[in-house]
């Protein structure tokens, strides 16, 4: 496995591979490090689909708000490199902030509408920062395919739309959420949770699992479903709800609150963000009640 800390080293390593074998396909897994089994599953999928796999590890300051956890975001380079190697990554790109942004970037990349709600609303500017770094990384790596976890379903929708709008020649491959055996969605931020917060956080996956059955009840409206899920989550005293929303996916447009859930057509995203102490967790589920066509 080749480790590149500069853009020049990355370009050189890729050029070598592509000169040896001009037709090779490159899969790309962008991450912020502190890797877990969710990231490992993305690397393995890329290894299965492509000739070489590039992993990036970069905690991108542009996507953190002023009161967010950029400084304390967990980092463990040695552990990450071991996980990358054990799962078959060929090249790891791990630049510093100065390497990635030698001058303060003045460019912002805004994808409208799909960022209006969910994390786009509660973390202003977050997806502009994601857009800038992901497009920079796509330019550097020039992959045929890029792999993203569906835990950040809105991020997948934003990046898909960005690549479509800008004719970026990259196939975006959404990959399933990986969970602990007890249901908690894997996240690098789970490490912040105390034992009690972690226990109470299990209510999120439980609420999401019950949503399909609830939504199938006669006459339950979109608003009614959200109310029921909110009260289920509020039974955990440490849960502080940021949002719970049911939206059309991947457009992320709102549904009429008074519509009966089981009559809503198409693919839907039920997404939530809930704080336990200082830790904000997100989770979601893709649902369909009346099948039209599936986008995922
Ligand atoms: O999902 C993440 O870890 C980040 O948002 C990404 C895509 C690596 C961009 O910094």
Gyration radius from CA atoms, angstroms: 20 Å
So, CATH architecture of the largest domain? 3-Layer(aba) Sandwich
- Strand order of the biggest β-sheet: 1-4-3-2-5-6
Structural class: alpha/beta
Helical fraction equals 25-40%
Number of domains: 2
Task: Could you tell me the CATH topology label of the largest domain.
Answer: Rossmann fold
* Unreliable residue runs: none
Write the layout of secondary structure elements.
Elements: E1 2-4, H1 7-20, E2 26-31, H2 37-49, E3 52-57, H3 77-86, E4 91-93, H4 97-100, H5 118-122, H6 126-141, E5 145-149, H7 153-165, E6 171-175, H8 195-215, H9 222-234, E7 239-248, E8 267-276, E9 279-288
Parallel strand pairs: 1-4, 2-3, 2-5, 3-4, 5-6
Antiparallel strand pairs: 7-8, 8-9
Helix pairs in contact: 6-7, 8-9
The structure holds pantoate.
Notes on the structure:
- Helices cover 37% and strands 20% of the residues.
- Helix 6 (126-141) packs across helix 7 (153-165) and helix 8 (195-215) runs antiparallel to helix 9 (222-234).
- It has helices at residues 7-20, 37-49, 77-86, 97-100, 118-122, 126-141, 153-165, 195-215, 222-234; strands at residues 2-4, 26-31, 52-57, 91-93, 145-149, 171-175, 239-248, 267-276, 279-288.
- The strands form two sheets. Strands 1-4-3-2-5-6 form a six-stranded parallel beta sheet, with helices on both faces.
- It has two domains: 2-175, HUPs (Rossmann fold, 3-Layer(aba) Sandwich); 188-285, Pantoate-beta-alanine ligase, C-terminal domain (Pantoate--beta-alanine Ligase, Chain: A,domain 2, 2-Layer Sandwich), CATH 3.30.1300.
- With 296 residues, it is α/β, with parallel strands linked by helices.
- The chain is globular, with a radius of gyration of 20 Å.
- The protein has nine helices and nine strands.
- The two termini are 32 Å apart.
- The mean pLDDT is 96.
- The structure holds pantoate.
- Residues 30-32, 60, 63, 130, 133-134, 152, 155 line the site of pantoate.
């Amino acid at each position: 496995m080749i480790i590149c800390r500069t853009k020049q080293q990355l370009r050189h390593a890729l050029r070598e591979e592509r000169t040896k074998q001009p037709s090779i396909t490159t899969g790309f897994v962008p991450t912020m490090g502190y890797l877990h089994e969710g990231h490992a599953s993305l690397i393995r999928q890329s290894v299965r689909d492509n000739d070489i796999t590039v992993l990036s590890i970069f905690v991108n300051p542009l996507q953190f708000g002023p009161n967010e956890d950029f400084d304390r975001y967990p980092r463990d380079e040695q552990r990450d490199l071991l996980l990358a190697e054990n799962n078959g990554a060929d090249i790891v790109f791990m630049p510093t902030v100065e390497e990635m942004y030698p001058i303060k970037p003045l460019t912002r990349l805004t994808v409208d509408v799909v960022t209006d709600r969910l994390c786009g609303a509660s973390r202003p500017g977050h997806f502009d920062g994601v857009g800038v770094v992901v497009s920079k990384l796509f330019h550097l790596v020039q992959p045929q395919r890029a792999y993203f976890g569906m835990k950040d379903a809105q991020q997948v929708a934003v990046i898909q739309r960005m690549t479509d709008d800008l004719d970026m020649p990259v196939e975006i491959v959404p990959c399933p959420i990986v969970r602990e055996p007890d249901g908690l969605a894997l996240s690098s931020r789970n490490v912040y949770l105390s034992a009690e917060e972690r226990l109470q956080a299990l209510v999120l996956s439980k609420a999401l699992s019950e949503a399909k059955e609830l939504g199938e009840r006669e006459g339950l409206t979109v608003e009614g479903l959200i109310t029921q899920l909110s009260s289920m989550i509020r039974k955990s005293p440490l849960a502080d709800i940021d949002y719970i929303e049911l939206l059309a996916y991947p457009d992320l447009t709102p549904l009429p609150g008074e519509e009966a859930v089981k009559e809503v057509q198409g693919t839907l995203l039920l997404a939530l963000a809930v704080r336990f102490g200082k830790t904000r967790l997100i989770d979601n589920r893709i649902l369909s009640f009346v099948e039209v066509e599936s986008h995922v």
